[in-house]
Amino acid sequence: MASSVHSRKKQVEEIAMGSNSKTFTFDEVAKHNHKKDCWIIVNGKVYDVTPFLEDHPGGDEALLSAAEKDATTDFEDVGHSDSAVEMMEKYFVGEVDSTTLPAKVSSNPPRPTQAPAYSNESSGFVVKMLQYLVPLLILGFAFALQYFGKKSKSDES
Q: 147 Cβ partners below 8 Å, 6+ apart?
């Protein structure tokens, strides 16, 4: 295991020194999917984020769930800061062969069938009326209690 950590560090150092970046297949990257060895793919680049797992603001689960897939969409949806993007450079280990990436699965669920528009409008109208009438009814009820409460006290005396 120590040799794999050493070889990973050596690989990162070679990339940092300007050597040609290595190209990985998707299957090679997908094997690195646990806490002791976690690689992710973002924008066609491969990052070994293992040393960053404990420090990631979203927790290690966010990074671990991004392993074994192209995490570009997940990364962009979060809206990472410029400094976070710059920080990624030190975890860069190579490129991914885009021809080995699995076909993208549509993440958009099928749209539910909608009822006719008039029913949506009428329900909106009902809500607006209730927002107006309920407070008036509560206010009327409070005045009625106060009026009948005073009347019954004056009858008792």
A: none
